[in-house]
Write a structure and sequence with these properties.
- This protein has 240 residues and is mainly β.
- The protein has a single domain (2-239), classed as YmcC-like fold, CATH 2.40.360.
- Helices cover 7% and strands 57% of the residues.
- The strands form two sheets. It has a 16-stranded antiparallel sheet that branches. Strands 10-15-16 form a three-stranded antiparallel sheet, with no helix packed on it.
- A hairpin with a 2-residue loop joins strand 15 (191-195) and strand 16 (198-202).
- The radius of gyration is 17 Å and the shape is globular.
- The two termini are 33 Å apart.
Length: 240
C-alpha cells in the first residue's frame, strides 16, 4: 500500500491544481497570500488535504505561482490512512502545473512529476456551462509521478463524455451555491510500480463520477464517485 499512499497523494492531491482552464485555478478563491483550502474524503477512497497558500504571484489570467504547504491524507477500503506533509512551489502555465521543492542545501529544485491541470476537473470546464444536457468531450491525461516518491510508469487517466444535469442548490463551505452536476466515467489504465526493489502490478480502475461545479466560486465543491459499488466523496470543507 506504500504506492497507494505516496503516488496517489502526489497524483490526486497535488493534482488539486486541476481544471481544463488554468485561468480558473489562478482565479480560485484560495489563490492569494493567506489563502486556505481544506478537502475531506469519505467512503471507499478517503482523500483529504489541508492546504495553505503563500508567495502568490499572478502574471495573467492563466499564469500564476504559489507556495503550497500543508498535510494530505489517503486511505483505501478501510485501511488506516497515510499522512504526508506537503511543501511545494507550484507554477501554472498553459494548462499544466509544475512543482519545485527545497533541497538539502535550501535551494529550490524541480520535482520531476508533471500534472495535467484538467485531471480531476476541480475547476472550470473550458467553457461556460449554460444548460442541462450540455456535454464535454472525452479526454485522456497522463501523469508523470515524482521519481523520488515511487518508481512507476506514467499513469494514464481517461474520462468519458461529460454530461451536465439540472442545476441544483448545494450547501457548501462557501455558503449556499447553485451548482451543476456533471456526470462521467473515469478510467485509470493498469500500470506497475517499483519500490524497495519490488515491482508490483497496479490494476486499472473505473469509476462513475459526479462533479458538483459551482460557477460563483469557479470550483467543483464536491466530487462523488462509485467504484465496484463503493461510494467515495471528496468535498471542500473550508475555502478562504
Amino acid at each position: 500500500m506504500r504506492f497507494q499512499r505516496s503516488a496517489c497523494l502526489a497524483a490526486l492531491l497535488l493534482g488539486l491544481a486541476s481544471g481544463p482552464a488554468a485561468a480558473d485555478l489562478c482565479q480560485a478563491p484560495f489563490m492569494h497570500n493567506g489563502g486556505q483550502a481544506q478537502l475531506v474524503g469519505s467512503g471507499g477512497m478517503q482523500l483529504g488535504a489541508d492546504l495553505a497558500f503563500s508567495e502568490v504571484r499572478k502574471q495573467g489570467a492563466d499564469s500564476c505561482e504559489a507556495r503550497v504547504q500543508g498535510t494530505a491524507t489517503f486511505g483505501l477500503a478501510g485501511l488506516p490512512p497515510g499522512k504526508s506533509t506537503l511543501d511545494y512551489w507550484m507554477t501554472v502555465k498553459s494548462g499544466k502545473a509544475s512543482f519545485e521543492r527545497r533541497d538539502e542545501q535550501g535551494r529550490r529544485e524541480p520535482v520531476n512529476g508533471k500534472f495535467d491541470l484538467r485531471m480531476l476537473g476541480l475547476f472550470a470546464y473550458g467553457e461556460p456551462i449554460s444548460k442541462a444536457g450540455q456535454t464535454f468531450p472525452a479526454l485522456r491525461f497522463q501523469i508523470n509521478l515524482d521519481k523520488k516518491a515511487v518508481q512507476t510508469q506514467p499513469i494514464v487517466v481517461n474520462t468519458g463524455t461529460k454530461t451536465v444535469g439540472e442545476r441544483q442548490t448545494l450547501q457548501t463551505a462557501a455558503g449556499e451555491q447553485s451548482c451543476w452536476p456533471i456526470r462521467y466515467t473515469r478510467r485509470t489504465d493498469p500500470t506497475q510500480a517499483s519500490f524497495s526493489g519490488l515491482v508490483l502490478p497496479v490494476p486499472g480502475m473505473e469509476s462513475a463520477v459526479t462533479d458538483w461545479f459551482c460557477p460563483d466560486v469557479h470550483m467543483v465543491m464536491k466530487q462523488e464517485s462509485q467504484q465496484s459499488g463503493v461510494t467515495s466523496v471528496v468535498e471542500v470543507t473550508r475555502l478562504q
